[in-house]
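Thread: "does anyone have the structure for this chain?"

Original post by V.I.:
We have the sequence but no experimental structure in hand. Need at least a predicted one for the grant figures.
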Amino acid sequence: MKSILPLTFALLLSAAGAQTVDLRILETTDLHTAALGYDYYQDKATGEYGLEYTATLIKQARDEKVNTLLYDNGDLIQGNPLGDYVARVNPLPAGTMHPMHAAMATLHYDGGNLGNHEFNYGLPFLQQVVAAAPMPIVSANTYTEDGDGNPANDKNAFTPYLIQRKLVRDTYGRPYYINVGIIGFLPPQIVQWDKTNLDGKLTTRDIVETARKFVPEMKAKGADVIVAIAHTGIAADYQPGQENAATELTKVDGIDVVLSGHSHQVFPGPVYKSIPGADITNGTINGKPTVMAGFWGNDLGIVDLTLTRKGNRWAISSGKASVRPIWDAAAKKNLVTPDPQIAAAVKAAHEGTLAYVRGKVADLTTPINSYWALVQDDPSVQLVSNAQTAYVKNALSTTEYKDLPVLSAAAPFKAGGRAGPSYYTDIPAGTLAIKNVADLYVYPNTVQAVVVTGAQVQEWLERSAGQFKQIDPAKTEPQVLVDDSFPTYNFDIIDGVTYEIDVTQPSRYNSKGEVVAPDAHRVKNLMFGGKPIDPAAKFVVATNNYRASGGGSFPGLDGKNIVLAAPDETRQALIGYFNQQKTINPTADGNWKLTPIPGVTLLYVSSPTAQKYRPANATLIKTRDDGFAEYTIKF
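Reply from O.Q.:
Generated one for you, tokens below.
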């Protein structure tokens, strides 16, 4: 007993002095109204995404740790027909909780941030949604536009940050309070992307500048841990005003954790292995735990921190991040079962959405799909252009622009990529319904038109042609054609002219819309009316509010040459066009093509289903573990 008592006493003393807390922070991001694993465009259930599945992961993760916090990182209320239904078709009554928030209330979120798509339905609707939210919402770099030209007295449009006093238990079960500070950020480009909704109402500030302003305040007010809920992507470099600034946020003194989003990617993950300072094994950037949890609820982000007591404050002694998926892509099966509480919370909105999307618009004579939209002129894009052209011609018929030729720019929104092998338009012949219109045009953009010159049409297409990698005409082995880092919604096809794209040339523009190869011209034989386009001639181009206001950094598009800012959404223009046509026979007019490269084999990635519609010069090679299929194309 003499040898045991001193040891026991020593252990008790040690335990009494140890003050260590394990804190787990959970993230969802870019849910885009995917409460359920339901594809409203195909009108069928899917297990590849949905908060109802993420909810199960959330509950499992909570069961593993005593102390957990849960935050959402924005782009919550827009993204599929359910979002449209409660915003536009059957608008939420004032004071009513948004269906996504009703679902999240069952999970007891501790807070949320705003993303760029929150503003797509206008500021009044967003303010109404935030006012009825079941958890606090923060957004630090959005300000109310007061019109006095003095940014020093601008007021935040939303709560910039909060310090939440949280009861936690240490490793021995003893209770303590920890002050957790949360601060929200979003891309400052929202005022450009949603100019129609925000002009004169809202201004934004640089993400990092805003962090450096508010984080010291948060520290001074007693925040032990500061979590940046940042709807911004991870990038290798940084410039003020940048869209993707999560990496730079990790360098801001006082920020302890960065919850990233916006890019629909996963961190820690191999796509970011080359980012300076990134440790994809431990989930840190510049030593700070950082996570990005995919999109549509397909992943749950997890940050695990160990805090130790130092005097009267807590400090992080270690931290790491990880991501848990809901879907096994290789085995094509769910890793968890759905939480029934989520379906119950959104039942009325879901049923209303189904009734809405099943409404008939017209008759469709042949199928429409987008499996090959990146390599050949495609009916899914052609139909959008036809509708835009008809709408703009009618809208400008009594204006000074009535005699200008109308072109139309449209892009294949659903073309696989990061969203997976099922993310393609695939509409069967028969009844064309509202759900199919939403499938053709997934965003709630409005119709706009700009006046440009023939030279600007050329440059517009050059920027669009950045969709492709440069191909070496001397190589005989297969070469990957599509640059996956280039968003397909920036691959504008301009109808009303004819042209070729020569992918043996380097891209004239980089991802920022800067000319990097001034001698390069991928766009060849650009013709209007069967003749080379006149660089000085003027054209009206039908497009959308995102592009016309500068979205995608296209040359000559900055919002200053808009001649039509229509109140109608592009989808409404499509519905009107289809109603007028009554019977739709979708065909592409073949106004563009890739310049043939004799002897070269191109490697193109699409869905396995694309085999049914493949062009004569394409061959299926294999179906990959990730669900995509590889095809070769020869000229």
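V.I.: this helps a lot. The first helix runs from residue 4 to 17.
O.Q.: and The two ends are 89 Å apart (CA to CA).
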